[in-house]
Design brief:
Ubiquinol-cytochrome C chaperone; alpha/beta; 8 strands; two-stranded antiparallel ribbon
């Protein structure tokens, strides 16, 4: 990856922003069959091990801090308990349906700017239904580990970038584009 490519991954509307998790990740998945749930959990665990990011069963403050919802269509969001409190957004399902979105990701941040939680909603009534469960799980995990400004897919180059970003010498949040130089140097 070039310096320009790295910077573009974290630049939206001219603003650079790269945040990572500082706390252990406590994933929970809703809407999967048991056999797919095992695959998802194993893949997420492998991705976290690769970047040396700890995973735990329960976050002491929040319970789960990485929630993934598999839905047949966006209308199912109406049945998610306390969705407005969870997301801070009303009519989210209707807005996603109007945009014909396949997925939606929402980050919450701790006071230091690090990722506190990530909520991911996947509409399996789209082409996502054709994805291999392990490949989909890897993509979902990768997209939740940094605040990418663009959609990314799991690749060896992106795995190397994640390992670089999770170097303990790098800050948990960066707003200066020079951060991309530090990432490039670690690749």
């Amino acid at each position: 990856m070039t310096l320009e490519e790295i910077a573009a991954l974290f630049t939206r509307d001219g603003q650079y922003f790269c945040a990572k998790w500082a706390r252990p990740v406590a994933p929970v998945v809703f809407g999967l069959a048991d056999e797919s749930l095992v695959i998802f959990r194993d893949v997420v665990s492998a991705v976290l091990r690769d970047i040396r990011q700890p995973m735990m069963e329960t976050d002491p403050e929040m319970g789960a801090n990485f929630m993934v919802f598999f839905l047949r269509d966006w209308a199912e969001m109406d049945a998610v308990p306390d969705l407005v409190e969870l997301t801070g957004q009303s009519d989210l399902g209707a807005r996603l349906a109007a945009r014909q979105a396949e997925e939606y990701r929402l980050f919450r941040f701790d006071a230091d700017g690090s990722i506190r939680s990530c909520l991911t909603f996947l509409n399996m009534g789209t082409r996502l239904a054709q994805a291999h469960p392990a490949q989909l799980a890897e993509t979902v995990a990768v997209r939740a580990l940094l605040t990418f400004a663009t959609e990314v897919n799991a690749t060896p180059a992106l795995a190397a970038l994640l390992r670089a970003a999770y170097d303990p010498a790098l800050p948990v949040v960066a707003r200066d584009p020079s951060h991309a130089l530090r990432l490039a140097a670690r690749l």
